[in-house]
Amino acid sequence: MAILINLDHMLLNRKMTLTELSERVGVTIANLSILKTNKAKAIRFSTLELLCKELECQPADLLSYSPDGPASKRD
Fold it and tell me: N or C terminus: fewer CB in 10 A for the chain?
């Protein structure tokens, strides 16, 4: 998928664990893990809103476009 979710970077920058974020936004760790590992096929705007509110960021801080998918992001 060409849309990447940069949740891992945001958590690192905020010094927050996935468990802590899960508790704060009310989204299961399993669902956040799917987002974090870029295995999600979709994200609800309501979830995106909760993440942005808690992480104090904009949607563009969490989402990026890479035509080659996650592999190009690691290079």
Answer: C
51-75 per-position pLDDT tens digit = 999 999 999 999 999 887 665 444 4
Among 38, 40, 43, 33, smallest CA distance to 69 is for 38
CA-to-CA distance for 1 and 51, rounded, in angstroms?
Answer: 21
H or E stretch including 5?
strand 3-5
pTM (global) more than 0.70:
yes
| Residue for token pair 């399993």 | 30
* Rounded distance between C-alpha atoms, residue 11 and residue 60, angstroms: 15
